Amino acid sequence: MQLSGNKVRKLEFLMADAVAQSADCVITIGGIQSNHCRATAVAAKYLNLDCYLILRTSKALVDEDPGLTGNLLVERLVGAHVDLVSKEEYAKVGSVMLTDSLKEKLIREGRRPYVIPVGGSNSLGTWGYVEAIQEIERQQLDISSDSTGKPGFHDIVAKGLGYALTTAEELKFVKEVAAATGVILDPVYSGKAVFRMLKDMNDNPGKWEGRKVLFIHTGGLLGLYDKVDQLAPMVGNFRRMDIAESVPRKDGTGKMF
Ligand SMILES: *Cc1c(COP(=O)(O)O)cnc(C)c1O
């Protein structure tokens, strides 16, 4: 859903529930660059539901226009309503109270809101992952097996500096993986997870040797736009083209010849 990721798996079930309950709008909550909130905003639009996002930002920015960087551009293009809260407010009352109070407000206005929890992570949403694994099995990928011959699943917990905080080393790693493979990892989750996975492969080679590894890339590309200031010194590679004045004109085909 406008650059997708794992969150659409959960939304497939959650949005169906919203429609089944005759909701006319959905409410969800997350960080200022939440991929889940972006995917929800687009999914809601596809289903002709209004979308209310509660986004957590710093105290210094909570009264400002949140701008159009990354996920925010998509959310605002599709017309999601954005309510900003500070990290302190979020920590004080918690996501459930915040979504519930917006829900009560909308009900008083005669709306029929459906609340999706942080990340879409509840028991209903988890069915999306059950289906994802079945899909992998159907594709008959030879996924890594444990000693019983069954696939072994590992959730790589790689918090690093903390949620949405990226070290220069991790960002450099994201850049190196992109330059080496064409695969763009995301700064919040997959970049840290691959970083730790490769580190573990180096530190504990015996654990990984001879195994086939399927790494599930969970999306999150748009979050990288929030890191452009940190990335700028690592990219570069452009120059003004040097065209000799003596080069004659030669038309090509197509509109731009
Ligand atoms: C949310 C998110 C995750 C974590 O997924 P959960 O389903 O919330 O555990 C991983 N990667 C990306 C890019 C995400 O946005």
From TrEMBL:
One GO MF term attached to the UniProt entry: D-cysteine desulfhydrase activity
Q: Which Pfam families match?
A: PALP (PF00291)
Q: Does the record carry Transport as a key word? A: no
Q: Name the UniProt key words of this record, in alphabetical order.
A: Pyridoxal phosphate
Q: Report domain Tryptophan synthase beta chain-like PALP positions.
A: 5-140
List residues modified as N6-(pyridoxal phosphate)lysine.
Answer: K7
Indicate yes or no for the key word Transmembrane: no
Q: Where is the active site?
A: S34
Q: Which cofactor does it need?
A: pyridoxal 5'-phosphate
What family name appears in the similarity comment? Belongs to the ACC deaminase/D-cysteine desulfhydrase family.
Protein name (database record): Tryptophan synthase beta chain-like PALP domain-containing protein
Can you name the source organism?
A: Stephania japonica
